[in-house]
């Protein structure tokens, strides 16, 4: 893994950006757009994934960065849970649900892998 110079270099952040873009697109149409509570909550959760990766990166310390990554991972799971609400309310079709659910899951897995990498580097006394 090459040296990460800025948060935009992080694969998990890039995937989170795609997730956020897709969530904004699906929540901007039809009945979903009119359910302000759910629409705003799922959007905030998606944005939280990106934001926590960026904020944690800029904190400087590996341990603090890992804490922010755990928050980001939790936000990805929150998106998945809210997608069930959207599906059950008829705001999204099953194929949309699956695509977005899988994208959020992939994002969470990338974050989890990055956490494991950072922990191993920290134990070895290395830098990110």
UniProtKB/TrEMBL annotation:
The residue stretches assigned to a coiled coil in this entry are none
From what superkingdom does this record's organism come? Bacteria
Q: Which InterPro entries match?
A: 23S_rRNA-intervening_sequence (IPR012657), 23S_rRNA_IVS_sf (IPR036583)
N-terminal signal peptide: none
What name is this protein filed under? Four helix bundle protein
Whose protein is this, by species? Answer: Thiohalocapsa marina
């Amino acid at each position: 893994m090459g040296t990460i110079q800025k948060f935009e270099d992080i694969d998990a952040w890039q995937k989170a950006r795609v997730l956020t873009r897709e969530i904004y697109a699906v929540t901007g149409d039809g009945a979903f757009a009119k359910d302000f509570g759910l629409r705003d909550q799922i959007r905030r959760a998606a944005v939280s994934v990106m934001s926590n990766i960026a904020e944690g990166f800029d904190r400087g310390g590996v341990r603090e960065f890992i804490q922010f990554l755990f928050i980001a991972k939790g936000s990805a799971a929150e998106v998945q849970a809210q997608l069930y609400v959207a599906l059950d309310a008829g705001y999204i079709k099953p194929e949309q649900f699956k695509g977005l659910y899988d994208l959020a899951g992939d994002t969470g897995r990338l974050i989890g892998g990055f956490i494991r990498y950072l922990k191993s580097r920290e134990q070895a006394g290395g830098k990110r």
